Amino acid sequence: TPISFIQTAFHAVVAYVNSIQGICLLNEQVVFEDSLDNPIRSIERDPVTGTIYVFTGKIYFLIISYSNSYQ
Q1: Which residue has the higher pLDDT, 64 or 52?
Q2: What is the Cα–Cα distance from 67 to 56, expressed in whole angstroms?
């Protein structure tokens, strides 16, 4: 069950408890997938840069960075 997601112009980044997926909105295929050792608490996008971060209880991960023209 997804705990959170963020949508970009062409992708949905979906966070689960211990994994994350990037899904193409054009063809619904998974284009990125990764598992994490620590449970994910949230996924957020920086409104200025468009950078997407995944936060766990111990660390954060930079997932994707878009220029403002692609948001």
Answers
A1: 52
A2: 25
Which string of b and e fits 44-68 if b means at least 16 CB within 10 Å? ebeeeebebbbbeeeeeeebbebee
Give the pair of three-digit tokens for residue 3. 């705990």
What is the 3-state composition of the chain as percent helix, strand, coil, each rounded to the nearest 5?
5, 50, 45
Grouping H, G, I as helix, E, B as strand and the rest as coil, residue 18 is: coil
The structure's pTM equals 0.78
- The span from the CA of 24 to the CA of 60, in Å, is 23
Which tokens sit at 35? 């598992």
